[in-house]
Amino acid sequence: MKPDIDNAVTGNKIHEISEEPTYSGINSFYRRKYTKDLKEVDIAITGVPLDLTVTHRPGTRFGPQAIRQASAIMAWEIPWPWTFNPFKELTVIDYGDCYFDPGKPDTICQSIEDHAATILKSGASVLTLGGDHYISYPLLKAHAKVHGPLSLIHFDAHSDTWAEEEKRMDHGSMFYHAAKEGLIVPWRSAQIGLRTQNDETHGLNIINARMVHAMGPKAVAEEIKRIVGDHKVYLTFDIDCLDPAFAPGTGTPVIGGLSSFQALEIIRALPGINLVGMDVVEVSPPYDVGAITALAAATIAAELLCLKVASKDADD
Fold first, then answer.
1. CA distance 155 to 203
2. Which of 102, 145, 229, 299 is deepest in the core (most CB within 10 A)?
């Protein structure tokens, strides 16, 4: 039987896996329909191609497209080892990218917040592909206006809570401001995989990289679930949480990180959390090798879709 080519355009298999060549076709995430129509959509996948707030190597503006392209490698089957097709359970589209004017940096934060707010207003959830990690700040602002203060599950090599006297656009301080502004509830939040020095926790619970290696994925997941409880959760995954051996294509790599297997097993053990928003960020294709970082990010994004389904089922 001839496959339905370019499902991203036709949308004929919006709840199915689309059997298309991995090397051609429209560059949507997991071959989902590429549309701005949010009617009856459960999850809108969107990109924020920003790299203006990095402290080291730029290039994450190319991240969303690289993740989409890498996702085509997986799009012929359901994510393993999950036993269900997430696209049957949820109506998922690719909403395209957020537009902002890089020549007007003072408008970027609001542009990202407004972009997310448009999706959330429709009743859909948002899975965002980055872009540098600053994008989580305006995304949290949009989500907090809908859901109230959130628990943060934060996978990263860096805390991103470095204090500053004057508020800046920076991918290393946005969670400091999120905590100060009440967007997140620190004591109900967990940071996983950290391995850089910051003397201030600002009340967030830290499961650093050494602890992850010692505890194992299942115990880490249980501790995360204990911390967040039934509170509404925003999950953000900075790809540099992974060791550079698994994700070299990122702006600020730090050795001694999680393996891709460890990260996936933690996510797979999280069903039951009240997940309302999520992002995968800091993929920088210019520093990637064989697109393995983009593939890791695409896989994690697909796992988050499955986690959303599994968490919903666990609550029912």
1. 16
2. 299
Q: How far is CA 113 from the centre of its chain?
A: 16
Q: How far is Cα 207 from Cα 190, in angstroms, rounded to an integer?
A: 7
pLDDT at 316: 45
Comparing CA positions, the residue from 69, 68, 75, 67 lying closest to residue 3 is 75
Instruction: Give how far the C-alpha of residue 228 lies from the chain's centroid of Cα atoms, to the nearest Å.
Output: 18
The CATH architecture one would assign to domain 7-315 is 3-Layer(aba) Sandwich (3.40)
Q: What is the dihedral of CA 169, 170, 171, 172, to 10 degrees?
A: -140
Q: Which of 298, 198, 214, 205 is nearest to 254 (CA)?
A: 198
The pTM of this model reads: 0.94
Q: Where are the alpha helices (DSSP H) in 50-163?
A: 63-71, 86-89, 108-121, 136-147
Q: Which residue has the tokens 């299942």?
A: 218
Which of 302, 306, 308, 270 minimizes the C-alpha distance to 129?
302
How many other β-carbons are positioned within 10 Å of the β-carbon of residue 91? 18
Locate the DSSP E strands across 34-192. Answer: 43-48, 92-97, 125-130, 151-155, 190-192
Q: Which residue has the tokens 């490698």?
A: 73
Q: Is the peptide bond before 81 cis (omega within 30 degrees of 0)?
A: yes
Cα dihedral value 8, 11, 16, 21, nearest 10: -40
The C-alpha atoms of residue 159 and residue 230 are separated, in whole angstroms, by 23
Report the alpha-carbon distance of residue 114 to residue 126 in Å, rounded: 13
pLDDT in tens, 171-198: 878 999 999 999 999 999 999 999 998 9
**29: which 2 tokens?**
């995430």
Query: What does the alpha-carbon distance between residue 206 and residue 68 come to, in Å, rounded to a whole number?
Result: 31
